[in-house]
Amino acid sequence: MAESDYEPSCKSAKPGDSSISDEYLYQAYRRSRMSFREFSEDREFLTALPHEIKSFLKRDELLADTEEDIYFALDRWYQKYPVARLDGYIGALPVIRFALLSSRKVYKVLKSIETNAMKLTEDLRKRITSYHWKFARQRINHVMANPTPRTPRADLKKYLYVLGAPRNDEQFLQCYDIDSNSWTFVKEKIPISRIDAGIAAFNGCVWVAGGQTASERKSLDSVCSYDPNTQMWSDEEPMNQKRCGCALTTHDGKLYAVGGRNEIEGTLKTSEYYDGSVWKDGVSMKEPRENLELVSEIDELFAAGGLDRRSTSAVYRKSMEYHRPTVDSIWCIAKQKRLLRPGGRLVSTQGIVYFVGWDIESTVVEYQAFSGLWGTAAKQTLRVPRKDFAAAATSGILYVVGGSMQFAGEFQETKSLQSFDPLTGETTDLADTVEPAGADVRAVIVERTILPE
To answer: How far is Cα 92 from Cα 77, in angstroms, rounded to an integer?
Structure first.
């Protein structure tokens, strides 16, 4: 018999007038009728038993505003008697549906868990820290693979946009619908066909910046955007510097352009950002880089790889550096335990930065943005190596598209799209692109919110 199916009689419903079992059923029934706010603010909440806390907080009809609220209610209960309630606390943590939180909120929750651990003995601190690491490794597959939202919310659709290489001075976008596993071709070509450009999602649109003209090979400062709603390209405010081989990403509501090169200054280490109206100068990297990789995760920017052509021979940067634009005034070099290889791609999702390498095995390594530790993804490699590809990631899944794949010892241009799950090491073949994207392919994930009717 479910707790919500039990409605005690008026006589037995009075505490003190019923047996112990009736009293328990009465309390269970009363809690089943309470909202999350009523339960978490009730005077008996802090004295509830671990199994009572867990059974209440895991309900689908809980109707809490956010999963973060659920965690901090659980944290208040735990802080009442930290040592005595440690096992109950760790046992109840899985009721939080981390998949419904943004990376930044997950980071906040995990930092709170670490703070709890600092107050305990070494043994207890290790237990909570091990749980932290376990969750950071498993990410959204924590107990529930497809968690149900606690409250009705807008539908979030995700699309993979692929900008192909210029062909006959024309360059087009292709759009992949992740939910339906299907491609559509954007008929309107980009205003200026370009190579070595940066691409990013910003304000629900695809933004392309810098690069060089496909015919004249001159560095550009021009910026344009594609709006999926109008299906039109628009010219945007140009950057302060011409940048070919720059990298583009969105962070904290701003669009960042980092590195690259131009005919006057050579390889650049400067950065700039667009705040929605004008481009402003940002903090310069430690090392000059062109054709670099750039991602944003949690509250940091990560720049990796790239070439430095200031000397007679090009030098490939095997380092990765990071920067917190809202906190730090400098870039810092990340601890290096895995060598980054030329031709690899950097992507990030759910607190982890992945480097998808170009080598004979297409090795995938990961960097924990939470802890600053390097690791290796499950089974480490994509099933079929490829080069000159593009990559993007969302919801813990990596997508690799275009470029050239090796068949019978030779590399051939491909229309292939594959997804890679770092947890299981499983590579899945998805629908092929409409046209081969070529060797200078760029890819980005755009999220669009569909409001409920």
So the answer is: 11
Q: Which pLDDT belongs to residue 392?
A: 96
Cα-based angle 18, 21, 27 (whole degrees, multiple of 5)? 80
Look at the chain and report how many structural domains it folds into.
Answer: 2
Question: What pLDDT is stored for residue 54 in this prediction?
Answer: 84
Question: Which is nearest to 426 in space by CA: 377, 376, 371, 366?
Answer: 377
Query: With contact defined as beta carbons under 8 Å apart, do 60 and 150 qualify?
Result: yes
Asked whether residue 445 is domain-assigned, the answer is: yes
Strands of 169-218, DSSP E: 173-177, 182-185, 194-195, 198-202, 205-209, 212-213
Per-residue DSSP letter, 231: T
> Could you list the residue range(s) of the whole structural domain that residue 102 is in?
34-141
Residues of the chain short of pLDDT 50, as ranges, are: 1-18, 20, 139-145
Angle 67-80/103-118 helices, nearest 10 degrees?
Answer: 10
Residues 111 and 237 in one domain: no
Strand 232-236 with 247-251, pairing:
unpaired
At 74, list the tokens.
């659980």
Query: Within this chain, do residues 89 and 233 fall inside the same structural domain, yes or no?
Result: no
Q: Please give the pLDDT value at position 27.
A: 57
Task: Please give the torsion angle defined by the CA atoms of residues 432, 437, 440 and 443, in that order, rounded to the nearest 10 degrees.
Answer: -60
Residue that is last in its domain, among 83, 109, 141: 141
The confidence score (pLDDT) of residue 25 equals 53
Tell whether 211 and 68 lie within a shared domain.
no
Please give the pLDDT value at position 451. 56
Residue 7 phi, psi dihedral angles, 5° rounding:
-125, 100
Asked whether residue 133 falls in the same domain as residue 172, the answer is: no
Whether residue 225 is found in the same domain as residue 115: no
Q: Read off the tokens for 105.
A: 């909120």
Q: Give the phi and the psi of residue 14 in degrees, each rounded to 5.
A: -85, 120
